[in-house]
Every structure is written in structure tokens, then in C-alpha cells.
Amino acid sequence: MINCSIFAIGNELLEGSIIDTNSAYLARFLSNLGINIKRVNLLKDNLNEIVDALRLAENDSEIIVTTGGLGPTFDDLTSCACAEAFYYDFEVNEIALNHITSMLSSRGVTIKESHKRQAMLPKGCLLFDNKVGTALGFAVKTKKGFCFSLPGIPYEMKHVFESSMLDFIKNNFKLEEVYRLDLKFKGLPESDVDDVIRNIDMPDDVECIINVSKGEIIVRLRSFNLQHLDKVKQILISKLNDNFFGTGDESLQSVLLRKLIENGLTIATAESCTGGLIAKKITDVPGSSSAFLGSIVAYSNDVKSKILHVPEDVLLNYGAVSKECAANMVDGLKKIFNCDLAISVTGIAGPDGGSEEKPVGLVYIGVLFKDAVEVKRYEFRGDREAIRERAANAALSIAIDIIK
Amino acid sequence: MINCSIFAIGNELLEGSIIDTNSAYLARFLSNLGINIKRVNLLKDNLNEIVDALRLAENDSEIIVTTGGLGPTFDDLTSCACAEAFYYDFEVNEIALNHITSMLSSRGVTIKESHKRQAMLPKGCLLFDNKVGTALGFAVKTKKGFCFSLPGIPYEMKHVFESSMLDFIKNNFKLEEVYRLDLKFKGLPESDVDDVIRNIDMPDDVECIINVSKGEIIVRLRSFNLQHLDKVKQILISKLNDNFFGTGDESLQSVLLRKLIENGLTIATAESCTGGLIAKKITDVPGSSSAFLGSIVAYSNDVKSKILHVPEDVLLNYGAVSKECAANMVDGLKKIFNCDLAISVTGIAGPDGGSEEKPVGLVYIGVLFKDAVEVKRYEFRGDREAIRERAANAALSIAIDIIK
Q1: Which of A44, A341, B43, B231 minimizes the number of CB atoms within 10 Å of its CB?
Q2: Are A334 and A370 part of one and the same domain?
């Protein structure tokens, strides 16, 4: 197996000022090509530390990938570290300089000394184009393979990697494709899934991981043998059929949208405690406009009564966080949007606003489908963010189930 | 300085299936206590690899922190690795077993063999309570200090860390508090900020990092000397006053809410391409109900005309993505919510739907404040997610500026 070391570079990463999302992205792509991710380390903007890490990785990794530290500022040291670690001269690269100059001039920025410094690269390095930013990707030959360097801004990194670097890796390394399958389940505890997996006669070459995230359980399968993978898939889905909702990159929102579009149905949401999160999730999916009409984020009671026409006495007698309010919210929604499926959420996300009777985490979710209204009551655990996330996911789950 | 090694444990991390957010959270807390984050490594669920990493870290780190691998499933190996690495017996911990049993029975789950395995911990370890999950935190003594283990689910990890482990660290290590200040700027390129910083006579003990994220620039300052920090802060704010918007944990949405509440103003949003993202961001802030009334997510043209009363001929002649539509959206919003500040966003987030005349990334943002309507035109770069994020941040920026 080809080994890979991934280094995310930047003091801000080791101080926890920003979260490294690049490494997970790269690890995922490269694992899928059958590459073993040997290490993922975060490194400071410190020349010696970067050089040491690169030299250490050179001994066991055919592929080294760095992200970050290619910008124009004083703390961007990755290019220099690559040159030093692998004994290349470090000099202004004319192609890179031209790229930076033309990219900046198209934005109306005049070139400065710091931008010229950004064009300094290891002599003779391979270049990878960046159509969306000033920092080109580059690679230098190492003992066993190559060290690739990518910009740190996630969408620039993805662009450079996907548009040329990925093909270069496929063409220059002997890779054995791994088959990979993620099965997603909702509405059951991790230990139940674990029980089922333990009792499967799992083929030796199938690797299996269980992941839990905000009410979703993901079983990740990997194997070089597609048939083995498929066999495990069939068993798992048959045993947990009611809770299975999708595979791969599918999310609750993408599955919901697919089902809506397949059935020619439309949806609208009325959100109180989730504050637009469900609408945001649905519209994360490209093409969501085919089924998603819109949302009323009814954060104040006034909006609940004025726009969604929740009767004043419902708000007075039962409160905004009640079964009755959730039911009236979907009724109002249906009248406004004339949607096939209407979903409402009202609850207490915290940290304040809870009481003994109505604790933080209490959420009512209303569903109107084919003129039938149903309201479900939940008590979610976690902080404000977790409660909002779980409430949104529960609403999406209910919507999927009802149109099944 | 006290050194710390952070290990995030889980195959899913090295396969890029989930993003490690725990390490950044811990690194941030510990850096603020003046602890040097020596390394952040992701580790597989492999007993030998975890043991090796822990033993290596023991040589240079007084504090070792692990996250993940404390669950009930077959791939949870952290407790066992801690016992092995630091030569402790590994046995069922009665307190942990009682905790797991009572936590599960309160959820109506009966205890299984896998849960009993979860109660196995290094003999004599210190325990840290977990009120929100089954996995207790624990610590064992190492050569130079302690190795702390935390659950991997972020809100459980935060809860255990903040409710008891943090105090334990403060009480058992000689720490020198670092003063830290993040200054946040909007609406200018990184190189301009870099220019200003290069020309400051920066005191030697002040560490300075520049971060760029979706239209925001964060200058992160750190020093053991509060006066030096303050001096640099004053210079930076005076030179970039128009673009400065907040410090520390303040976000565009929290600054906006603070200003709205201070001035007794209310806000509502009408969102097309951002699809609820602005409402979601505003309602991320606890207490947002004091100023945020709600949002109309007007994804379809039908909703734009029916609910927001954008005239049909505006949609016909200029299209939904137009200055005219954005202006009419805020007018409609004002009539519905009677808010002081109305913000509308309409644009093309992509990947499809762009044309030569109206490319992907084109966004109009409308603002109505004190009966004056203004519409700004933007062309954002990036993918769907980046465009939506930048559009939402631009809308929040405009709102902040207008009530200044």
C-alpha cells in the first residue's frame, strides 16, 4: 500500500483559532484511492519544525501533502521549508510571479514586495494551476515519491487538488482502488447497530467503522472486494431496514429532496427554535429550488400569530412551545405556500428559557401531509447548537418517513 | 512553558469521514492558559499506534490529552492504550460501571456486554464526571504530568473538560496566563492588513497571526504583557478603524445583535440564495429573540411575489436576481414585520443557474433602514458554500455599518 503523510500548516491551527478541514478532505479522497493515511499532523509556522516533519515523513511516505503557508505574509513558510527539506534551491518562479501579477491586476490590486516573495518556490518544482487564487500548487520529487503543497484556503485547495493534482497522483503512483460504502441510519442507538455488526459473519477484508453524529449513525465499510462489501450491505440494510436512509454522500436533506422531486411534491418549513437551520440545510443542496418553496422563520410570537396565523389564545393558553402551536404553524404554512408537505419546529434551544415543565431541549415538530397533521414531542440533549442540529435532523427524518 | 500533546483518536478521522473539531477547541483553551501546544496528531483506532504515540509524547509533554475512543464499540481502544502505555492494570471501574448503568436506565436502555467493556479503565485513574453521556473522562499520572482522556462527541467532550478537567489542570500545573486578543476586520484584503502590521514597531514579546476566513480578517495577538498587547491593539484599530468590527469571540452576528439591542432596534431578513443562512447565523446567538423578529426564506419566485409582494413585472423584466427585486423584497419585509432594519439577499449561489450576464456569485443585498432603501451588488468567488457564506457575511456587515 502507498503511504501518505498529511501536514496542515499554520500557527492558527495549533492555537485552535481555526479548524483544519483540509486534512479530512484530502484524507477522504486519498483513502478512496487505496492510499493508507499514515499520519495527519498539524504544524506551526516554524521553518525547522516543518523541515523536520517533512524529512521524517519522507522515510515512510511515498506521498506527502501540505496545506497552508503559501500566502504572501511573513508567516508563510511552506515553500521555503519544502526547498530546504528536500535540498532544492529557493528562487523566484517566473510562471508563479506572472500568475500572481495577472490574478491581482484582474482584481485591481497592484503587486507588492510581499506578493513577489509569494512567487519564490523550490527550483524545478512542478506547478499545478490555481484559477481561483494567487497561490499555485506545486510538487517536488522526494526519495520515494513526491511532496505536494496546496494553498490553505479550503476552496482554493479543493480546486487545485481536483483540477490537476489528483490526476497527477493517479498517473504517477500504482494505486489499487478501494471500494467504500457509507450506510446511514437514523433513529436508533449506536449500541443496537453495534449488536447487529458483531453478529454478522464479517469477511476478513472488510473494514467497518461506526460513526455517530447528531442523531445519525454512519456505518463505514471498506474493502478491495466489491462483492464482500455488497454482501455486508445487504445484511445490514435487511436487519435495520426501518432506520436505513441513504448511502455515501447522501444527507437527510439530499434524500428528502430526491424523494420530493421523484414524487413531484413541494415542501415549506416554519421554524422557531431552529431559526432557519432546516431551510439552510435544504438549500445547501444544489437544485433544491425544484421542491423547496421557502420558509417562515417565526422567531417572535408576533410573527407566529401575524404571518402563520397561530391563534392568540393558543399562544396564551399553551405557549409557543406546545403541540398546539406546532400544529397551527403547519396549518398556517399550508395556507401561505400551498405546499404538499409542511414542517414546523418550535422548542427551547437554550441556554436560557427552560423551566421544569418545559426544559431546555423540549421541541415539538409538526408535519402536515395530505391534509393530515401530526405533532411529535422530543427532548433533545446537548448544548444550543446540538439541540438545534438534532431538531433540524429530526424534522428532516420525519419528512423522509412520511413520504416513503 | 508547559508543553501539551493532543491526540484525536478514530479511524474515521484519518479517513476523512469526520472533521476533528475537538483538537482546535482544546488547543484554544490550553493556549490561553500559556500552555504550548507541542503537537496535534490524529491517530487510528490501533492499539500499538496509540501506545507508541502516548509514550513518545510522555517524553516532552507535561500534559497529554486524548479525545475519542471511549465508547462501547469494538473499535474503542483509548482506555486500554492509556493503561498499556503508562503501565497500569486495566480493569472494570465500579464507579464508571454505575455511571453507565444509571445513565442508560434513565434513557430506558438495558445494559449490555459492550457497555460493561466501556467501564474498563486504567486501575487507580482519576475520574471526571460526564452528566451528558456514558463515557466518563479520566486521567492517569505520567512521568512529567498527566494524560487526560475525553469522550469524542464534541458536546460531551466540552462538558467534561469545562466542568472539571480544566480546573484540575489549573490547580495542578504552574501556568502563566497568556493575554490574547483577536481583532476582527471586514471589507479589506489580507495584504492591506499585512502592510499595516509590518509597519508597526511590534514589541518582541507580542506574537501576531493573520487569518482570513470568508470575507473576515482576524488579527490574533498574544503576549504575556497586557500593556504591549493593548498598545498594538490601539495602533491597529486607529489605522483600520473603518474596517474594525469586533474582538474575541464576537462574530458579525453577535456584534450586530449587540448594536440592535443597544439601540432598541428590530431586524428581519428576506433570503433567497442564502436560504435561511442569515437567520440561522443570527439565531445561533443566545438571546437573539430580543431583536430578531424572523425571516422569509423566499426561495421560489412565487413566494417572492405572494408573500413579499415583489411585483410580477419586476420578476418578469429584471428577474429575481436584480437590484429591483432586492429593493422590493425589503419593502415587502418591512410591511410584514414592521421591523426597523430589513435585509434582503437574492443571488446565484451555483453551481448551476449562471449566465454571462448574471454569473454564479452575483448577489444583490438590499437594506431598508429608517425608510431609506439601498441595494448593493456583489460578485463573490468560490463554490456554492463559500458564495452563500460570503453573501450572508456581507449582509451582516452592511447591517452593522448602517446602524453605526
Answers
A1: B231
A2: yes
Do B200 and B132 fall into the same domain?
no
As for the ipTM of the complex, it is: 0.78
As a whole number, mean pLDDT of residues A91-104 equals 95
Per residue in B287-318, pLDDT (tens digit) is: 999 999 999 999 889 899 999 999 999 999 99
Where residue B48 falls among pLDDT bands split at 50, 70, 90? very high
What value does the mean pLDDT take over residues B362-384? Answer: 94
* Cell numbers linked to A241: 431496514
Interchain CB distance below 8 Å, B289 and A300: yes
Q: Considering only the beta carbons, identify the residue of B17, B189, B351 that sits closest to A28.
A: B17
Q: How far does A388 lie from chain B, in Å, by closest CA?
A: 9
Contact: A16, B39; criterion CB under 8 Å = no
Identify whether residues A210 and A341 lie together within a single domain: no
Q: Which helix (H) or strand (E) holds B222?
A: strand B216-223
B197 versus B78: the higher-pLDDT residue is B78
- Residue A376 pLDDT > 90, yes or no? yes
pLDDT at B138: 98
What domain range is A317 assigned to? Answer: 252-402
Residue A14: CATH number of its domain: 3.40.980.10
In B, minimum Cα distance to A16 occurs at B24
State whether B205 and B123 are in the same domain.
no
Mean pLDDT of chain A: 93
Per-residue model confidence as pLDDT tens digits over B6-44: 999 999 899 888 899 999 999 999 988 889 999 999 999
Query: Quick one: DSSP state of residue A178?
Result: P
Instruction: Tell me how many domains chain A contains.
Output: 3
Shared domain for B107 and B239, answered yes or no, is no
Cβ contacts below 8 Å, chain A against chain B, sum to 283
Q: Which of B191, B292, B385 sits opposite A299 (nearest CB)?
A: B292
Nearest chain A residue to B6 by CA: give it: A14
**CATH number for the domain that contains residue B208:** 3.30.70.2860
CA distance A338 to chain B (A): 10
Give B134→chain A minimum CA distance, Å: 12
- Among B72, B286, B294, select the one facing A303 at the smallest CB separation: B294
**Are A297 and B294 in contact (CB < 8 Å)?**
yes
**CATH code of residue A258:** 3.90.950.20
**Both A265 and A288 in a single domain?**
yes
Query: Which of A4, A17, A179 should we substitute to test contact with B (largest number of B Cβ atoms within 10 Å)?
Result: A17
More confidently predicted of B75 and A284: A284
What cell numbers appear for B105 in the block?
436506565
Contact B15 A209 (CB under 8 A): yes
- How many C-beta neighbours within 10 Å does residue B3 have? 18
The predicted pLDDT at position A277 comes to 97
Chain B residues within an 8 Å CB radius of A153: 212
Cβ distance of A40 and B37 shorter than 8 Å: no
Helices then strands, counting H and E runs in chain A, come out as 16, 17
Q: How many CB atoms sit inside 10 A of residue B26's CB?
A: 27
DSSP string spanning B39-65? Answer: EEEEE-S-HHHHHHHHHHHHHH-SEEE
The residue out of A228, A247, A266 marking a domain boundary is A247
Q: Which residue, among A5, A15, A360, would best test binding to B if mutated, counting the most B CBs under 10 Å from its CB?
A: A15
The tally of CA atoms less than 13 A away on the side-chain side of residue A52 is 8
- Residues A122 and A75 occupy one common structural domain: yes
Out of B247, B275, B303, a domain closes at: B247
| Cβ within 8 Å, pair B112-A278 | no
Asked if B19 and A24 come within 8 Å (Cβ–Cβ), the reply is yes
DSSP label at residue B178: P
User: Would you list the DSSP string of B149-161?
Assistant: EE-SSHHHHHHHI
The verdict on A113 and A18 lying in the same domain is yes
Distance of alpha carbon A350 from alpha carbon A346, whole angstroms: 12
